[in-house]
Structures are given as structure tokens and as C-alpha cells.
Prior knowledge:
Strands 1, 2, 3, 4, 5, 6, 7 and 8 form an eight-stranded mixed sheet that branches. With 277 residues, the chain is α/β, with parallel strands linked by helices. Mean pLDDT is 89; it is low at 1-15. 36% of the residues lie in helices and 23% in strands. The protein is built from eleven helices and eight strands. Helix 5 links the parallel strand 4 and strand 5. The chain has helices at 18-21, 25-36, 61-64, 77-84, 122-131, 150-159, 162-172, 187-196, 217-223, 228-232, 236-253; strands spanning 46-50, 69-74, 91-95, 107-113, 133-144, 200-212, 256-257, 260-273. The chain has a single domain, classed as Vaccinia Virus protein VP39 (Rossmann fold), CATH 3.40.50. The longest helix has 18 residues, at 236-253.
Amino acid sequence: MPVPVxxxxxxxSPTWDPALxxxxxxxxxxxxxxxxxxxxxxxxxxxxxxxxxxxxxxATLLDRWPGARVHGVDSSAAMVDEASALAGxxxxxxxxxxxDWRPDGxxxxxxxxxxxxxxxxxxxxxxGWVDRLTPGGxxxxxxxxxFEGPAxxxxxxxxxxxxxxxxxAGVAASGGPSARGGVARPxxxxxxxxxxxxxxxxxWETTYQHVLPGDDPVLAWxxxxxxxxxLDALDDQRRAAFRERVAQGLREAFPARSYGTVMPxxxxxxxxxxxxx
Length: 277
């Protein structure tokens, strides 16, 4: 994997940067594969990926369900542009917010990988998505569970320092994925909600031990995801200073080894099957 070369322009935009996100493509795709392989639905004809990002993982759904038409939805125009290069007769992409998605008809499988933590209302959306499944169909999603972890703690601590608090107080206190409390819920809460809808639910947690190469790789990882709201909220001068302070904190929290930097990353996985009538 190439070591990322940083360009401040890559993190100043309020939109997602596909190249930045794909720096750790293999590590980000692994949870997607682990989620999808547990979905016990055969012969799916309609599959939707909500929050499809650059589409590289979405495209693998064509092999998982060879007879299906796969449709990806993402709110980032840059991500959809990147994904559209992969489109074909069975694979399509569209720009749109997860909250606004409505299918044209019943769907056999709905997948959402590392996206719902950006949607504060996602608990309210789950019953409607289950209703749009075919009987026996599956809703499968994965969310990070690191909002109380060391990286998020570094972000919040630096954001509350006097030099940054004026611009970042709202971000640090928000319901974003790196804010205290976060948006993602405990696995048991998802099980209770979906089980209460009559679904058969399979839920689990996995902590990946990512070994990342290069200098400041944890900063690189989060600059494409959970650190983005902080960086977007700052002016150019404070952004550079904030990144350096965060980098210092992350080096202490995730010390480099001779073989790389180990970054534990916990994720919650849920697969819920709509019952048959």
C-alpha cells in the first residue's frame, strides 16, 4: 500500500474525497466483505447499497449475487462520480441522501456499510427499510463503535483548546461519529428494535487490529472519515495547526512500531431478516 502524501486541499472540501478515502481501501473493504458473507439470502434479484462511497465494495455484490441488479446510493457527488466509472448493465449509482431513499419496488437485500453513523435519524429509518424488503430479505449494516476510543478522545481534547474552541465547539458537541456519545447505538439496541419488528436478527462485534504503514497513518485514516467535520469547520491557518496537534496526540495514543502502527478498530454488525407472512 502506498504511503499517503498529504495535500491540504484534499481535506478542505465539505465533500468527501474518494482518493483520500481509498488510501486504506483494503482495510475499509474487509468489514464490508465480513458483513455480506453472513447474509443468508440466496438468489437475490434486487440489492441496494446505501452509502456506497466510491463503489469499489459495492461492485463486489455482483459476485455475491450473480443474478441481481445492484444499485448504490451516496450523498457525495464526488463519491458517486468515482463509483460511476464502475457502472454497467447490472450496477448503477445515484446521488442522494440515505434519509430520502425510496425504492421503486421490493428489495431483496439492503446493505449499508460504515454510513449510518453519519445519519442521526437512522434508527427511525430502519422500520421503513424492513418494510421494503421482500419476505425473507435482509437488511445488513455495519457501523464503527469507536466514539469513546482514543482517537475520538484526542479529537475532542484538541478541539476544546482555546485556540480552536471558537470554531469547533459545535463539532465536538455534535452527534457526529467522533463526538462524545456518537450516533451509532449499541448492538443490543439494534437487536431489540429489529427483533421487535418480528425480524430474525444476527448481530456481532469485531475489533480489527489494523497494522498501518507510513508516518502518522492514524491521522491519515481519520482525515478521510471521522476527522473530516473538524477539518471542514476550520480556516486554513487553524486547520494546519489543528492537524499537527491531533497528529501529536495520535502518535502518543497509537505508538509506531518497527513493523507499522497498530490501530484497533471496533465495528458493530447487524443482519435482520424480514419474516415471511
